[in-house]
# Entry
Amino acid sequence: MMSLKGRDIISIRDLKKEEIELILDSAEKMEPYARGEKFLKLMEGKILGTLFFEPSTRTRLSFTAAMQRLGGQVMGFSGTGITSMAKGENLTDTIRTVERYCDIIVIRHPLEGSARLAAEISSKPVINAGDGANQHPTQTLLDLYTIRKVKGKIKGLNVALLGDLKYARTMRSLACALAMFGAELTLISPRGLEMAPDILSEIENRYGKKPYQTNDIDAGLRKADVIYICRIQKERFEDKYEAERMQKAFRITPEILSQCKDEVAILHPLPKVTEIDPRVDEMKAAKYFDQTFYGVPVRMALLALISGVM
Ligand code: NCD
# Structure
Protein backbone atom coordinates (compact mmCIF):
# COMPACT_ATOMS: atom_id res chain seq x y z
CA MET A 1 0.00 0.00 0.00
CA MET A 2 1.25 3.46 -0.94
CA SER A 3 1.55 5.72 2.11
CA LEU A 4 2.49 9.33 2.66
CA LYS A 5 2.32 9.03 6.44
CA GLY A 6 4.96 11.14 8.17
CA ARG A 7 6.36 12.45 4.89
CA ASP A 8 8.02 15.87 4.42
CA ILE A 9 6.91 17.68 1.25
CA ILE A 10 9.76 20.03 0.36
CA SER A 11 10.06 19.75 -3.42
CA ILE A 12 7.66 18.38 -6.01
CA ARG A 13 10.48 15.92 -6.76
CA ASP A 14 9.88 14.33 -3.34
CA LEU A 15 6.72 12.79 -4.79
CA LYS A 16 6.38 10.01 -7.34
CA LYS A 17 3.74 10.26 -10.04
CA GLU A 18 1.55 7.63 -8.34
CA GLU A 19 1.76 9.54 -5.06
CA ILE A 20 0.68 12.76 -6.75
CA GLU A 21 -2.23 10.86 -8.34
CA LEU A 22 -3.22 9.53 -4.93
CA ILE A 23 -3.29 13.10 -3.53
CA LEU A 24 -5.35 14.38 -6.48
CA ASP A 25 -7.82 11.47 -6.30
CA SER A 26 -8.18 11.97 -2.54
CA ALA A 27 -8.78 15.69 -3.10
CA GLU A 28 -11.81 14.82 -5.27
CA LYS A 29 -13.36 13.08 -2.27
CA MET A 30 -12.63 16.13 -0.08
CA GLU A 31 -14.53 18.62 -2.25
CA PRO A 32 -17.95 18.50 -0.50
CA TYR A 33 -16.17 18.89 2.85
CA ALA A 34 -14.02 21.71 1.49
CA ARG A 35 -17.22 23.50 0.47
CA GLY A 36 -18.72 23.04 3.92
CA GLU A 37 -21.57 20.86 2.60
CA LYS A 38 -20.49 17.91 4.75
CA PHE A 39 -18.47 17.71 7.96
CA LEU A 40 -15.41 15.76 9.01
CA LYS A 41 -13.55 15.13 12.25
CA LEU A 42 -10.63 13.24 10.72
CA MET A 43 -8.03 15.48 12.35
CA GLU A 44 -9.77 16.29 15.61
CA GLY A 45 -7.19 16.91 18.33
CA LYS A 46 -4.37 17.62 15.85
CA ILE A 47 -2.61 20.97 15.48
CA LEU A 48 -1.08 22.45 12.32
CA GLY A 49 1.69 25.03 12.83
CA THR A 50 1.87 27.67 10.07
CA LEU A 51 5.14 29.64 10.04
CA PHE A 52 5.01 32.39 7.43
CA PHE A 53 8.16 34.49 7.18
CA GLU A 54 6.96 35.93 3.84
CA PRO A 55 3.61 37.46 2.82
CA SER A 56 0.77 35.11 1.91
CA THR A 57 -2.99 35.21 1.44
CA ARG A 58 -4.10 32.03 -0.32
CA THR A 59 -1.51 29.54 0.82
CA ARG A 60 -1.80 30.33 4.52
CA LEU A 61 -5.58 30.77 4.55
CA SER A 62 -6.27 27.68 2.46
CA PHE A 63 -4.04 25.58 4.73
CA THR A 64 -5.98 27.04 7.66
CA ALA A 65 -9.33 26.32 6.03
CA ALA A 66 -8.16 22.81 5.09
CA MET A 67 -7.11 21.96 8.65
CA GLN A 68 -10.28 23.40 10.15
CA ARG A 69 -12.51 21.63 7.61
CA LEU A 70 -10.80 18.41 8.76
CA GLY A 71 -11.74 19.18 12.36
CA GLY A 72 -8.19 20.15 13.39
CA GLN A 73 -6.71 23.32 14.89
CA VAL A 74 -4.18 25.83 13.57
CA MET A 75 -1.57 28.00 15.29
CA GLY A 76 1.23 30.08 13.85
CA PHE A 77 2.47 33.47 12.77
CA SER A 78 2.84 35.59 9.66
CA GLY A 79 5.75 38.00 9.76
CA THR A 80 8.56 37.71 12.29
CA GLY A 81 8.12 41.11 13.95
CA ILE A 82 6.21 39.73 16.94
CA THR A 83 8.18 36.46 17.36
CA SER A 84 11.46 35.90 19.19
CA MET A 85 13.26 36.06 15.86
CA ALA A 86 13.02 39.81 16.37
CA LYS A 87 15.23 39.21 19.43
CA GLY A 88 17.77 37.34 17.32
CA GLU A 89 16.58 33.73 17.66
CA ASN A 90 17.60 31.59 14.69
CA LEU A 91 15.42 29.37 12.47
CA THR A 92 16.78 26.16 13.99
CA ASP A 93 15.68 27.06 17.52
CA THR A 94 12.34 28.32 16.25
CA ILE A 95 11.68 24.97 14.56
CA ARG A 96 12.89 23.00 17.62
CA THR A 97 10.30 24.90 19.63
CA VAL A 98 7.37 24.78 17.25
CA GLU A 99 7.72 21.06 16.55
CA ARG A 100 7.00 20.48 20.24
CA TYR A 101 3.68 22.32 19.96
CA CYS A 102 2.13 20.85 16.84
CA ASP A 103 1.74 17.77 14.61
CA ILE A 104 2.60 19.13 11.14
CA ILE A 105 4.57 22.28 10.24
CA VAL A 106 3.92 24.45 7.18
CA ILE A 107 6.72 26.93 6.48
CA ARG A 108 7.23 29.77 4.00
CA HIS A 109 10.60 31.50 4.12
CA PRO A 110 12.57 33.80 1.77
CA LEU A 111 15.71 31.62 1.72
CA GLU A 112 16.10 28.76 -0.75
CA GLY A 113 16.74 25.55 1.19
CA SER A 114 15.12 26.82 4.42
CA ALA A 115 12.25 24.32 4.30
CA ARG A 116 14.69 21.43 3.75
CA LEU A 117 16.66 22.64 6.78
CA ALA A 118 13.46 22.81 8.84
CA ALA A 119 12.60 19.25 7.80
CA GLU A 120 16.03 18.01 8.88
CA ILE A 121 15.59 19.59 12.30
CA SER A 122 11.96 18.68 12.90
CA SER A 123 10.78 15.23 13.89
CA LYS A 124 7.29 16.26 12.75
CA PRO A 125 6.43 16.40 9.02
CA VAL A 126 7.29 19.69 7.29
CA ILE A 127 5.51 21.09 4.24
CA ASN A 128 7.24 23.73 2.14
CA ALA A 129 4.85 26.60 1.37
CA GLY A 130 7.53 28.39 -0.68
CA ASP A 131 11.28 28.75 -0.05
CA GLY A 132 12.52 31.84 -1.86
CA ALA A 133 12.70 31.34 -5.62
CA ASN A 134 13.09 27.58 -5.28
CA GLN A 135 9.99 25.41 -4.80
CA HIS A 136 6.27 25.56 -3.93
CA PRO A 137 5.09 21.96 -4.15
CA THR A 138 1.56 22.31 -2.74
CA GLN A 139 0.79 25.07 -5.25
CA THR A 140 1.83 22.63 -7.97
CA LEU A 141 -0.51 19.97 -6.59
CA LEU A 142 -3.45 22.33 -6.80
CA ASP A 143 -2.35 23.53 -10.24
CA LEU A 144 -2.31 19.94 -11.52
CA TYR A 145 -5.68 19.32 -9.88
CA THR A 146 -7.12 22.41 -11.57
CA ILE A 147 -5.80 21.40 -15.00
CA ARG A 148 -7.27 17.93 -14.56
CA LYS A 149 -10.62 19.43 -13.53
CA VAL A 150 -10.77 21.96 -16.32
CA LYS A 151 -9.31 19.86 -19.15
CA GLY A 152 -10.04 16.32 -17.97
CA LYS A 153 -6.38 15.31 -18.42
CA ILE A 154 -2.80 16.58 -18.34
CA LYS A 155 -0.97 14.27 -20.73
CA GLY A 156 -0.55 15.66 -24.23
CA LEU A 157 -1.83 19.15 -23.38
CA ASN A 158 0.16 22.11 -24.57
CA VAL A 159 0.80 24.21 -21.46
CA ALA A 160 2.39 27.63 -21.79
CA LEU A 161 4.16 28.97 -18.71
CA LEU A 162 4.29 32.72 -19.04
CA GLY A 163 6.07 35.34 -16.96
CA ASP A 164 8.97 35.35 -14.52
CA LEU A 165 10.34 31.84 -15.01
CA LYS A 166 13.57 32.67 -13.22
CA TYR A 167 12.35 33.74 -9.79
CA ALA A 168 8.84 32.22 -9.57
CA ARG A 169 8.95 29.08 -7.45
CA THR A 170 5.47 28.18 -8.68
CA MET A 171 6.87 27.89 -12.21
CA ARG A 172 9.93 25.86 -11.23
CA SER A 173 7.80 23.32 -9.34
CA LEU A 174 5.07 23.15 -11.97
CA ALA A 175 7.40 22.75 -14.96
CA CYS A 176 8.86 19.54 -13.50
CA ALA A 177 5.45 18.13 -12.59
CA LEU A 178 3.95 18.87 -16.01
CA ALA A 179 6.86 17.11 -17.69
CA MET A 180 6.33 14.16 -15.34
CA PHE A 181 2.66 14.00 -16.41
CA GLY A 182 3.49 14.14 -20.12
CA ALA A 183 2.39 17.68 -21.02
CA GLU A 184 4.12 19.63 -23.81
CA LEU A 185 5.70 22.79 -22.41
CA THR A 186 6.07 26.23 -23.93
CA LEU A 187 8.15 28.59 -21.81
CA ILE A 188 7.60 32.30 -22.43
CA SER A 189 9.42 34.95 -20.44
CA PRO A 190 10.88 38.41 -20.78
CA ARG A 191 14.55 38.34 -21.81
CA GLY A 192 16.69 37.61 -18.76
CA LEU A 193 13.91 35.81 -16.84
CA GLU A 194 14.19 32.43 -18.60
CA MET A 195 13.80 29.12 -16.76
CA ALA A 196 17.02 28.13 -15.00
CA PRO A 197 19.21 25.39 -16.53
CA ASP A 198 18.78 23.00 -13.56
CA ILE A 199 15.06 22.66 -14.26
CA LEU A 200 15.51 22.52 -18.04
CA SER A 201 18.04 19.71 -17.82
CA GLU A 202 15.87 17.81 -15.36
CA ILE A 203 12.90 18.06 -17.71
CA GLU A 204 15.01 16.82 -20.58
CA ASN A 205 17.06 14.12 -18.86
CA ARG A 206 14.44 12.72 -16.53
CA TYR A 207 11.27 13.07 -18.59
CA GLY A 208 12.63 13.27 -22.13
CA LYS A 209 10.84 16.55 -22.88
CA LYS A 210 12.26 19.55 -24.66
CA PRO A 211 10.25 22.71 -23.94
CA TYR A 212 9.78 25.29 -26.68
CA GLN A 213 11.29 28.53 -25.36
CA THR A 214 10.54 32.03 -26.56
CA ASN A 215 10.46 35.69 -25.48
CA ASP A 216 7.51 36.42 -27.81
CA ILE A 217 4.08 36.22 -26.12
CA ASP A 218 2.03 36.13 -29.31
CA ALA A 219 3.94 33.34 -30.97
CA GLY A 220 4.11 31.28 -27.79
CA LEU A 221 0.41 31.28 -26.93
CA ARG A 222 -1.30 30.28 -30.17
CA LYS A 223 -1.12 26.53 -29.63
CA ALA A 224 -1.69 26.57 -25.87
CA ASP A 225 -4.50 24.57 -24.24
CA VAL A 226 -3.57 26.07 -20.88
CA ILE A 227 -1.88 29.41 -20.21
CA TYR A 228 -0.29 29.58 -16.77
CA ILE A 229 0.82 33.11 -16.00
CA CYS A 230 2.47 34.63 -12.93
CA ARG A 231 3.59 38.07 -11.85
CA ILE A 232 7.14 39.35 -12.08
CA GLN A 233 8.61 38.53 -8.64
CA LYS A 234 9.63 42.11 -7.88
CA GLU A 235 10.79 41.38 -4.32
CA ARG A 236 13.56 39.14 -5.71
CA PHE A 237 14.97 41.84 -8.03
CA GLU A 238 17.85 44.07 -7.07
CA ASP A 239 16.65 46.68 -9.54
CA LYS A 240 12.95 47.30 -8.77
CA TYR A 241 12.64 49.70 -11.71
CA GLU A 242 13.67 46.90 -14.06
CA ALA A 243 11.01 44.64 -12.50
CA GLU A 244 8.33 47.29 -13.08
CA ARG A 245 9.39 47.77 -16.68
CA MET A 246 9.09 44.02 -17.37
CA GLN A 247 5.78 43.86 -15.52
CA LYS A 248 4.27 46.47 -17.84
CA ALA A 249 5.55 44.80 -20.99
CA PHE A 250 4.19 41.34 -20.20
CA ARG A 251 0.42 41.34 -20.22
CA ILE A 252 -2.49 39.11 -21.26
CA THR A 253 -5.37 40.99 -22.92
CA PRO A 254 -8.62 39.98 -24.66
CA GLU A 255 -6.91 40.99 -27.94
CA ILE A 256 -4.08 38.51 -27.38
CA LEU A 257 -6.59 35.84 -26.33
CA SER A 258 -8.57 36.30 -29.54
CA GLN A 259 -5.57 34.74 -31.32
CA CYS A 260 -5.59 31.70 -28.99
CA LYS A 261 -7.57 28.45 -29.04
CA ASP A 262 -11.30 28.87 -28.21
CA GLU A 263 -11.15 26.48 -25.27
CA VAL A 264 -7.94 27.84 -23.74
CA ALA A 265 -7.88 27.98 -19.92
CA ILE A 266 -5.97 30.68 -18.04
CA LEU A 267 -4.49 29.82 -14.66
CA HIS A 268 -2.56 32.03 -12.24
CA PRO A 269 -1.28 31.21 -8.74
CA LEU A 270 -2.26 34.77 -7.69
CA PRO A 271 -1.63 37.45 -6.50
CA LYS A 272 -1.90 39.18 -9.87
CA VAL A 273 -0.73 42.73 -10.32
CA THR A 274 -0.93 44.11 -13.88
CA GLU A 275 -0.14 41.02 -15.98
CA ILE A 276 -3.80 40.22 -16.64
CA ASP A 277 -6.07 42.86 -18.15
CA PRO A 278 -9.11 43.12 -15.78
CA ARG A 279 -11.43 42.46 -18.75
CA VAL A 280 -10.02 38.93 -18.88
CA ASP A 281 -11.44 38.19 -15.40
CA GLU A 282 -14.93 38.14 -16.93
CA MET A 283 -14.04 35.77 -19.78
CA LYS A 284 -14.83 32.05 -19.64
CA ALA A 285 -11.16 31.21 -20.11
CA ALA A 286 -10.31 32.72 -16.69
CA LYS A 287 -10.08 29.84 -14.19
CA TYR A 288 -7.84 31.36 -11.54
CA PHE A 289 -10.44 31.92 -8.85
CA ASP A 290 -11.67 28.33 -9.20
CA GLN A 291 -8.00 27.38 -8.91
CA THR A 292 -7.70 29.18 -5.54
CA PHE A 293 -10.64 27.17 -4.18
CA TYR A 294 -9.02 23.89 -5.22
CA GLY A 295 -6.21 24.72 -2.80
CA VAL A 296 -8.57 23.68 0.01
CA PRO A 297 -9.50 20.09 -1.02
CA VAL A 298 -5.95 19.43 -2.24
CA ARG A 299 -4.40 20.59 1.04
CA MET A 300 -7.06 18.66 3.01
CA ALA A 301 -6.07 15.49 1.16
CA LEU A 302 -2.38 16.15 1.71
CA LEU A 303 -2.76 16.83 5.45
CA ALA A 304 -4.94 13.75 5.94
CA LEU A 305 -2.53 11.51 4.01
CA ILE A 306 0.56 12.82 5.84
CA SER A 307 -1.19 12.28 9.19
CA GLY A 308 -2.13 8.77 8.15
CA VAL A 309 -5.84 9.31 8.88
CA MET A 310 -6.87 8.73 5.26
C1 NCD B 1 2.73 32.50 -5.17
C2 NCD B 1 3.95 32.42 -4.28
O1 NCD B 1 3.90 32.87 -3.13
O2 NCD B 1 4.92 31.85 -4.76
N1 NCD B 1 1.52 32.68 -4.53
C3 NCD B 1 0.84 31.61 -4.04
O3 NCD B 1 1.32 30.88 -3.20
N2 NCD B 1 -0.39 31.39 -4.52
C4 NCD B 1 2.88 33.33 -6.37
C5 NCD B 1 3.45 34.70 -6.31
O4 NCD B 1 3.75 35.24 -5.23
O5 NCD B 1 3.60 35.29 -7.39
